[in-house]
Amino acid sequence: MRTKIRNARRLVVKVGSALVTNNGAGLDKDALDDWARQIAALRATGYEVTLVSSGAIAAGMQRLGWSKRPQAMSKLQAAAAVGQMGLVEAYEKAFSRHGLHTAQILLTHEDLADRSRYLNARSTLTTLLELGVVPIINENDTVVTDEIKFGDNDTLGALVANLIEAEALIILTDQQGLYTADPRRDPTATLISEGRAEDRRYEAMAGGAGTGISKGGMITKIRAAQRAARSGAHTCIASGHETDALLRLAQGEAIGTLLYATSTRLQARKQWIADHLQLAGDLIIDDGAVSALKSGRSLLPVGVLEVRGDFERGAAVACRSIAGEEVARGLVNYNASECRKIARKPTAAIKELLGYIDEPELIHRDNMVAC
Ligand SMILES: Nc1ncnc2c1ncn2[C@@H]1O[C@H](COP(=O)(O)OP(=O)(O)O)[C@@H](O)[C@H]1O
Ligand SMILES: N[C@@H](CCC(=O)OP(=O)(O)O)C(=O)O
């Protein structure tokens, strides 16, 4: 079973406030150095690793000399702004010892809810990974209000795993993994080694945060695992205090709790396209394209006769025959006006017609389901 993490190539690692800030007392630089060492070793063996790190507020409080977490939102946001500097400085220093660059990405809910910002965030992140840079992600605490906050970074970690289509999410925390009950309250609680992420029994076992400095607790980690599984990613919850936890997980060692996804990334994405999307437009396609789509091939611009509706790049659209029958639906690589310009044209003409080429297909077969 633990080959699931070993076989993953794209990983999201989330480190929680409880670890990064050593229970709220500023940044634990030794811990940061140690994760950087392990992530550098993973990169060297071909893994692509994105780090979601908490700690901005706690680091800011220390820099500002505040011993108590303030109540006022504006003070928390000010602390996050000050502390985020310290956090990324510490990571950049730690990774530079291993010849790696880091990049700071601060996200909000809106960035992931809006389709075109989502796609931009995705292409920036995947480009950074291709360049060998380690993205360091946190919530953009300075601009969010209570109502629109992710709040805990477990949720953010799962959304990032979905965003970049990671195969695994590793959540490092201050416990060995998920126990049958909160081990701080119940000394008889035992560690769960593995199970299906969707298994609803885990929610009842999981409680809130362990320390005042953390936000989510175990319940948000279980929900993050469920969310990650919806895009086919497995989640492992393990202790960040465990020696070489990341390296050992990557070698397939059974530490922590593995909450595995039961469908593959591709199945999960296709299911999502089939089930959930409101369609933003129609592409009327010729008979040749109808048979190409029915045999599982991508849709090329040359097979499109007419474009109906006004949609953005990445929107879900229906592909219909001339008679109006829905043949397939999928996520389109160009917006409506670009589609109109390249409809009926060969792929080789896209660059000249639009001034750039994003993808050779209008809809890639991985982003399409036949009806
Ligand atoms: N069933 C459980 N198993 C393990 N830990 C649990 C459980 N229920 C609640 N917890 C608490 O969750 C805490 C970890 O979450 P949290 O404090 O939010 O840390 P982090 O900052 O790493 O996200 C643990 O310290 C533990 O007290
Ligand atoms: N974005 C906040 C962290 C949010 C938070 O504490 O989340 P978590 O580590 O999941 O308990 C910060 O950097 O201080």
UniProtKB/TrEMBL annotation:
Transmembrane segments: none annotated. SUPFAM superfamilies: Carbamate kinase-like, PUA domain-like. One of its GO terms (cellular component) is cytosol. It catalyses: L-glutamate + ATP = L-glutamyl 5-phosphate + ADP. Its main location: cytoplasm. GO terms for biological process: L-proline biosynthetic process. Pfam families: AA_kinase (PF00696), PUA (PF01472). GO terms for molecular function: ATP binding; glutamate 5-kinase activity; RNA binding. Its EC number is 2.7.2.11. Pathway: Amino-acid biosynthesis; L-proline biosynthesis; L-glutamate 5-semialdehyde from L-glutamate: step 1/2. Residues 281-363 form the PUA domain. Keywords: Amino-acid biosynthesis, ATP-binding, Cytoplasm, Kinase, Nucleotide-binding, Proline biosynthesis, Transferase. It is found in: Cytoplasm. ATP binds at residues 14, 173-174. PROSITE patterns: GLUTAMATE_5_KINASE, PUA. Substrate binds at residues 54, 141, 153. Belongs to the glutamate 5-kinase family. Catalyzes the transfer of a phosphate group to glutamate to form L-glutamate 5-phosphate. This is Glutamate 5-kinase. It comes from Thauera terpenica 58Eu. The gene is proB.
